[in-house]
Sequence to fold (420 residues):
Amino acid sequence: MSGLFAEARKRLKAAAKHLEVDPDVLEKLKYPKETLAASLMVRMDDGSRRSFKAWRCRYDDTRGPTKGGIRYHPQVNIDEVMALAFWMTFKCAVANLPFGGAKGGVSVNPRQLSKAEIERLSRAYVQAFASFIGPDRDIPAPDVYTNQMIMGWMANEYGAMVGHPTPAVITGKPLVLGGSLGREDATGRGGYYVLRLLEKELGVSPEKTRVVLQGFGNVGYHCARLLHEAGFRIIGLSDSTSAIYDSDGIDPVAAMEHKRKTGALAGASTNGKTVEMSNAELLESECDLLIPAALENQITGENADNIKAPLILELANGPTTPDADAILDRKGVTVVPDILANAGGVTVSYFEWVQNKSGYYWTLEEVQSRLRQFLEPEATRVWQLKQDKGIDMRTAAYVHGLDRIAQAVAAHGTKAYFSS
Ligand code: GLU
Fold:
């Protein structure tokens, strides 16, 4: 398989076949606008210094300042960061946010660092990328293994560098430092809203839809919690170390409590019927809805044929490869794509940025109802495009996003304008 970025770009080609776009647009979206690499020298607790590779990629800013999270993971590399920035560009366009797309990453296993080391690493990231980011230029946020506290340190470091607090430089901050109500569960909630908004079309209902969810971090947990509260049966759950399956249903809140206490999901359900399995087995287990909420490249050409779920809701970024898409499509599996299904996070990040800029803060009800209002027309439009053009939902979402980006590029003039 080629690199992740090359794979990601295939989506654009597929979408371009279904939309009349000026060649200028595709030319502009071929490569990232700019990518900066740095090595972060960080003082360890024992007094030594270690260097960590770090990147930030601003993919395209035609529609506004660039937006996207920062990931801390041992496997992060420039190719992955570019792919993730590409996806953010389309996600922001699909959600109709006035942002382009970006992403950042540090190649690190945060579990091997102390809290104080993570703070120094996070501050070093901002020092290295201070001129690259900014409240009107590029606005980071949390992603895999980064959280509110890290965002708070980063905002604080940026404020110290420019000489005044600048909360709008980063989103996903703690509430008391200018964060937004409702940001913590926004990605999971957005996925839940999209599912409920299209429940008739997708044929799901709390009574009959049994759910398997891979990835029990912030995103997966909140989506599982909301589904469980609505009466859906969660029959499978996994984190990076283990997976559990119980056809009677698992209470995700109790499972999280168990994970917090013991550090693992294994043993979370004690009714004696729970089966423990590998992550790979969980993906292929019997269910009505599969929710990948971990990392990219989980459903591939290798295992797509064995997937039993007729419906997939992508809460992770890029969990399904183009190879797998072709197989799933042939099998009649519907995939609600990442750039729609997980757009709730960046949408509430946008709300946080707006609140920081205006200095006026919203209630939780306002945040949640506006999130729904933002996602509703987009989910409906993607479904409509899928039906009208006879294409899968992912291609439909890309067509929808590409249309918005293309209009923005065309507003600066294309060949057709200058030659008439
Ligand atoms: N990391 C999240 C994503 O992949 C959120 C990005 C943001 O809020 O800017 O969508």
Summary: Residues 32-169 form a domain with the Rossmann fold fold (CATH 3.40.50.10860). The mean pLDDT is 96. The longest strand covers residues 49-60. The chain has two domains: 32-169, 186-341.
